[in-house]
Design goal:
The chain is of the alpha/beta class and about 325 residues long. The chain is built from nine helices and 15 strands. Strands 9-10-11-8-12-13-14-15 form an eight-stranded mixed β-sheet. Strands 3-4-2-1-5-6-7 form a seven-stranded mixed β-sheet, with helices on both faces. The protein is globular, with a radius of gyration of 20 Å.
Length: about 325
């Protein structure tokens, strides 16, 4: 028996999710909603609603929803679906802020699956880096330096909600830097100590456009630069380990502006002597793998191991700490 699916929000990300939902053998897409629809209609046996509430108020037997909405609606719709015992896949960020995400905890049920979309974990370079780190071939991580930057806050969708704190919750760190924060946590575990500088000096919105932060746990120091002032888009993470290093450069994306996705592995074998290996990744399978994994989770009652509520709450906690450490921007 197939899993009946609805998508709430059919923008760029929603359309990308739709492609792989329709390809999945377990999923059956029966409804979508988007405020850009002029009216409700049915096309190719799929119900199209202008208002997402119409999906919940319909007589459709919906088992699972994908939420690809602006930040200020994510937590609200997630709670509503969980109350109705509908499985939820919600895109990042999981909420406007840490406090808002905390309010979801009381709606969690073992029988209802909740997964958040952190698709960067599914990129080929990231999976290879994680494998090397877990195998301890290069020893333990010593430090991490990360940069994720683009040239503006607003997107090619020409929507301005991302530039307003009341809708977005935060700026470039919440929008894009959240991926890098999640990867740092993925590789290194939790961090409890933070120092940061947060600025909106250039674009002048009431959310930040530039963030520099350092963090520390018992064994590892890490730094991140999350910026909307990077005219040449950049994704880079340098991981230093006891017996070598892992350098991640470029990431495959829809915009194709972050360069080729590649990983460089240096393994020390003598004093100042290294073996260097470099791998390139030509196809982004992250969106498909994430959708397929969620289908398996719902179909077979598996536990959500990647992108679960506790992953999300820890990432939002880290972002909250970075914001609160520099109180100049409120």
């Amino acid at each position: 028996m197939k899993i009946n699916v609805a998508i709430i929000g059919l923008g760029v990300v929603g359309k990308k999710r739709r492609k792989y939902i329709e390809q999945n053998r377990y999923f059956n897409l029966i409804a979508v909603s988007d405020i850009r629809f002029k009216k409700n209609f049915v096309k190719k046996k799929i119900y199209h609603f202008k208002n997402y509430n119409d999906i919940f108020n319909s007589n459709l037997n919906i088992n699972c929803i994908f939420i690809t909405l602006p930040n200020y609606l994510s937590a609200k719709v997630t709670k509503f679906a969980l109350q109705k015992k509908i499985h939820v896949f919600c895109e990042k960020p999981p909420a406007k802020n840490y406090k808002e995400l905390l309010s979801i905890k009381k709606f969690l049920k073992k029988s209802v699956k909740l997964k958040y979309g952190f698709n960067h974990r599914y990129h080929g370079s990231i999976k290879l880096a994680k494998k090397i780190i877990d195998e301890k071939k290069l020893g333990n991580i010593l430090n991490v330096r990360a940069l994720y930057g683009k040239s503006k806050i607003l997107t090619y969708e020409k929507s301005d909600w991302r530039s307003k704190k009341k809708y977005a919750g935060g700026g470039i760190l919440t929008d894009q830097g959240i991926h890098m924060i999640d990867l740092i946590k993925f590789f290194c575990g939790d961090f409890l100590e933070f120092k940061s500088f947060v600025s909106n000096n250039f674009w002048g919105y009431d959310i930040e456009d530039d963030v520099l932060a350092i963090m520390r746990n018992k064994n590892i120091m890490a730094s991140i630069h999350s910026t909307a002032l990077r005219w040449e888009h950049k994704f880079r993470m340098e991981i230093s380990l006891e017996r070598g290093s892992i350098n991640l450069n470029g990431i495959l994306s829809g915009s194709k502006t972050y360069g080729k996705e590649r990983i460089e592995i240096l393994e020390k074998y003598k004093k100042n002597k290294y073996i260097k290996k470099r791998y390139y990744f030509k196809k982004d399978k992250s969106w498909k793998e994430e959708v397929d994994e969620f289908a398996d989770i719902v179909k077979h009652d598996y536990t959500v191991k990647v992108g679960n509520y506790f992953d999300a709450i820890n990432v939002m906690y880290m972002i909250n700490q970075i914001y609160n450490n520099d109180r100049k921007l409120k």
